[in-house]
Q: What sequence folds into this?
């Protein structure tokens, strides 16, 4: 497991401070005590440096050895600070897409919160807006969210006051006929797995990647529901 850059950079800073102290004309304490701290830190130093591709030959007991340590640490600091950029530069090319390409039901409410880095709140707002759009499409205001999706996408015939959403399908094509049930399960899963945690776990902060994937799932669902037709009872 690669060393955590934050830990390594902090460790290097403290180790360099020890080297500065022992090489100073007026050390802050007994040089033998400083040397002992340096020796105790060296097993960790060697391990961290090796993770960055650096190896030490000298022990650091002499001024020349400490110079080698300083130079190795400087190179390792460069590796750690550039590691993410280098990995991105040499990583296989992947698809990139603008979030503004998400379905409008999702992005129109997520965008203001996204720009302020409130990622969890952006997902909660997008899910709430998707539910609102379905309520409006069905003129159904007595249920929302998970319950709304369950009733709107039910394969049962519509009832008075309970219209359904029908996903377009060609009769006789099994994979298309399964779209209705698939959309129902997907919608219920989206609201249980994404909307509920985003809305109710108010103390939890979401990372950007997690929230982006959640918005993508909501956008997929929004496109299907937007294209679905309304079937009302006679």
A:
């Amino acid at each position: 497991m690669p060393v955590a850059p934050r830990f390594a950079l902090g460790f290097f800073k403290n180790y360099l401070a020890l080297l500065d102290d022992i090489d100073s004309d007026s050390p802050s304490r007994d040089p033998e005590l400083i040397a002992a701290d340096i020796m105790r830190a060296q097993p960790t130093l060697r391990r961290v440096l090796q993770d960055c591709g650096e190896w030490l030959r000298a022990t650091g007991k002499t001024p020349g050895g400490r110079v080698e340590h300083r130079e190795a640490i400087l190179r390792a600091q460069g590796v750690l600070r550039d590691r993410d950029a280098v990995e991105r530069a040499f990583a296989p090319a992947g698809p990139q897409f603008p979030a503004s390409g998400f379905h409008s039901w999702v992005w129109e409410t997520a965008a203001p919160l996204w720009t302020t880095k409130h990622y969890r709140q952006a997902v909660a707002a997008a899910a709430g807006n998707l539910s609102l759009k379905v309520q409006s499409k069905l003129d159904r205001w007595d249920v929302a969210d998970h319950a709304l999706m369950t009733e709107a996408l039910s394969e049962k015939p519509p009832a008075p006051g309970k219209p359904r959403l029908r996903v377009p399908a060609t009769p006789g094509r099994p994979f298309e006929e399964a779209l209705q049930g698939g959309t129902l399960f997907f919608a219920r899963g989206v609201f249980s797995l994404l909307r509920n945690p985003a809305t109710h776990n108010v103390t939890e902060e979401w990372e950007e990647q997690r929230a982006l994937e959640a918005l993508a799932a909501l956008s997929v669902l929004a496109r299907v529901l937007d294209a679905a037709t309304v079937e009302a009872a006679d």
Observations:
- The CA atoms of residues 105 and 129 lie 6 Å apart.
- The radius of gyration is 29 Å.
- The chain has two domains: 5-90, 99-231.
